[in-house]
Amino acid sequence: MRRILSIILCFSLLAIPTARAEETKHVALTFDDGPSGRFTRRLLQGLEERDVQATFLLCGYRLKIYPELARQIFDAGHEIGLHGYSHDNMAAMTDWEITKEIVNTEKLLPEGCTPAFLRPPGGNATAVVSRVAKRKGLALLLWSVDPRDWAVHDAAAVEAAVISQVQDGDVILLHDLSDSSVDAALAIVDRLHQEGFTFVTASRLAQLRGTKITPGQTYLSFP
Question: Helices 38-49 and 67-75: crossing angle, nearest 10°?
């Protein structure tokens, strides 16, 4: 009888790691509109302290101002995507104008950085935007959780908005344009870590879910 109980206990212990692995929840933090000087620096420091990788959708005109921050983002293991050069509405642009937005931004990326995603400003993804993105080898990354941190400027409210709706596989939209947004982002990381979430880049999240990123296609989440 004692031997049987020992065998049962061994099998139950072997099953524990598998059960825990299956319970792991993954989400992707994404940050629009940067790089943004001291806000991005502070965010990068906070993410490093928490061992978190994120996806930064960068604007060309801001890359021109803060080239060293783009390199810092890339060297820290974060993913870089494109957010256009001017941050103007791509839905109102021609094929040629959208292409120019992409090309001029790509020229400013750190050496060795090959983006997988374009996030059109405002999420305005038209058929023309998709066509140009496909031609340039880019998928369109939108989002599934948007706490509107750019408008709220209340870290606690932004954190609560994300926590109340986030699910496994979500893509969270944030910005690194203010102290309140950075405060909210780091608080979200701390809270979701406590709830068993792991943070990965958008590309890694797609890979974990067996999703092949296809240029020209639009992705909101990876459930």
Answer: 10
Calpha distance 165→90 (Å, rounded): 29
Residues involved in catalysis = 32, 175
Q: Between the CA of residue 147 and those of 43, 50, 138, 142, 174, what are the distances in Å? A: 17, 22, 26, 14, 8
- The sign of the torsion formed by the CA atoms of 194, 195, 199, 204 equals positive
Angle in degrees, 0-180, between the axes of helices 95-106 and 127-135, rounded to the nearest 10: 40
What mean pLDDT do residues 63-89 have? 98
When pLDDT is averaged across residues 130-158 and rounded to a whole number, the result is 97
* Contacts (Cβ under 8 Å, ≥6 apart) of 73: 35, 40, 44, 56, 58, 80
How far is the CA of 197 from the CAs of 28, 43, 119, 170, in angstroms?
A: 10, 19, 24, 11
Distance, C-alpha 146 to centroid of its chain: 12
Alpha carbon distance 216, 172 (integer Å): 21
**Segment 76-95 mean pLDDT:** 98
Sign for the pseudo-dihedral over CA of 185, 186, 188, 192: positive
Model confidence band, residue 24 (pLDDT cutoffs 50, 70, 90): confident
Q: Which of 82, 46, 44 is nearest to 62 (CA)?
A: 82
Instruction: Please answer whether residues 62 and 204 qualify as being in contact, where contact means their C-beta atoms are separated by less than 8 angstroms.
Output: no
Longest dimension (CA), the chain: 78
